[in-house]
Task: structure prediction
Amino acid sequence: MSAQQSRGLTSRAVALAGIVASMITAGPLAAQTTVTMWTFLDPNKTSPREVALKEIIAGFEAANPSIRIKVEPQDFAQMPPKFFLGHRTGGNPDLVWIDAKNLGGLSQSGAGADLNALVTKAWSQADRDDFFVKAGWNAALKDGKLTAMPLFHGASVIYYRKDLLKAAGIDPASLTTWDALAAAAKKLTTDKDGDGRVDVWGFGMPLAAIKTESTPALIGMLDQDGGPFKGCKANYATPEGIKSLGFTADLITKDKVTPQEALVQNVDDITEQFTAGRYAMAITSNLRFSVIAKAAAFGGDNIGIIAWPSWSGKKPAPMPVSGWWIAAWQKSPRLAEAAKFIDYLASKDSIAKWMTVGGQVPIRKSLLDSPFLKQPANGWMTTMVDAWSTSSWMEPTECNTRTLQSALNEAVSRVVLDKVDPKAALQEAERKFADAQ
Amino acid sequence: MALPETADYWGSRPPQPLVMPRRRRPLLSADEIRAYGFVAPLVVLEILFVVTPLVIGFYYSLHRVDYFELTSFRGFDNYWRVLTSPMVLASLAATAIFAIGALILTLSVGLSLALYLEQDTRWNIFARAAALVPYVISMLVGSLLLRWIFSTDSGLVAAALGPFGLGDTTILADPTAAMGALIFNAGWRDSAFAMILLLAGLKSIPPQLHAAARVDGASAWYRFRHVTLPLMRIPILIAVVRLLIHFVNVLTFALVLTGGGPNGATQTMGLAMYRLGFLDARIGEANALAILVFLFNIVLIAINVVLFSERRRAAP
Result:
């Protein structure tokens, strides 16, 4: 074989290899890319938020035919730790939903990709400023990196039955102080059939140590200068803290508007009991509004939400900010596609879908003048927006705040059952917080 | 003629003993290879799912773990923290009260059922099956049912106590009553398991012993005291150890029925571990507690193994 023949053969082989290689690579490019997402919602189910998610995914897939979103529903409590573990072992989805208590972990573990680089760098400043709950946006921002994008915000709030308050002659707008709340709860605690047993309790609080929400024991001390934390050190045993804990315990022991059984009731129990008509007012998450409204035997239109009372009544106590954020896994091989879906989820259209179909409070300012919010049935959303706009509070994401509500709930139990001095009970709670750091 | 000192009769080579060359024994016989083959899958599974997590758990227990990242080496500090933690010490006390209470209730009911239902009549076979119902339904579902039953607002217990003016009696929110409810939950579910273990023991007692005692005029109580109980010693001990292992480790009863409350009164070790690890994100300390509970379990299992071997020796 001459040198010329050999060169010709080589060039043909190279060309053939090129064709084969291009065929191999062209295959996957032409095929769909599947982006996997962990969330606690299942788009195959029928709750309002699940229907909203299904519609959002359908809209995205129609606009991006080469990307398919595969949802793998997870238990909401186990999802974040499972994701952090997966970051080490390499078995994570491309996208994950993260709650407020795990935003710090997301940042510290390095599992979350920088969404500023992937998504928001293409946004205008006005678009970024459109997210009006600043505490929620900033919670995922560290050293200029945005590790998660808010989807919808939530908070522990006070629900009330409009019919019962009306019958008792109570204007919900008048419940601006803790004392007014206790007095209203007394009026609402009734024994309808006169058998000596309370049929409707005035005020329900989830005081179990697991599946918690914020209660007056915490909200009452948010008014104090500097809040309940100094860095990652709990500062509960203050005059405001003692007053707040005493007030919460008194609702059971002195005012008798909350049953003692609330000490072992978690947020699921309280929500069920409120839905069943056992409480006239109760604390649960605003994220559950659509579900409660759908299930309540007394009618979804009959439910309202009030802003948190305060000691002075001059302005509401700060509204906590929790809810759900979405993050992309740092090591995902499909980061570009995942980022595209996050961009779509954060769009005005998607947030509007969360509002109108999912029953969630909109987190974009540009949606606040939507006619949907003007409807009387959605008045509670306006209450939430106003409260967050006036004063909001977010747990410090750099600390382990998982013991915050549970330790305060145990402090309530210590005061009610063991007759422990509130200050000593709060000092115990401070130690529990310190141990968890 | 004298032979030279350096040489023998056969010349310079000393005489060699006449022995057959030994065949080297194979390392393992065919039977042994087969036996190991049967055992191997189980050993592999044990290594994968028990030994490996145990080693990793021990390694984690020596570190501070933040979001599953080992951030610093703590040595045995996590063990010290766990052993001096008021929450863990309270859970140790709660576990002891629960385990002993549940053991007494379960064994008493289980033994009574076993004695009552020992004969294989149609009714007894039906009653044994009925007694097994709480044991075969899901532990979670059973505890959830009892949670509703004990609820003050809508529970059967409150409704039953209502006519006596005790309708507002709080069971789950009272520390003592909640522990009673937890023990009841365990007894309700696991008495059937005790019954099965003890029934097997009762069936192994030769009937002629009872017949002979009866001929000698022994009363039913006397026969129970001096024939049945001595021969049931090992089955009862096995039931005690097995139930104790179960009660020390069980999580579901406390998690579902009381959530560990009120005020930690029913927070058992299993629930304390769950809280430390999954709720409070204190993975290092949760692993340290898990290792300590594991060591306690080893002691109980060792007792169980010894009892089993005693029973096998005692078997006719």
Summary: The two ends of chain B are 78 Å apart (CA to CA). Residues 30-61 of chain B form the longest helix (32 residues). Residues 295 and 301 of chain B are 10 Å apart (CA to CA).
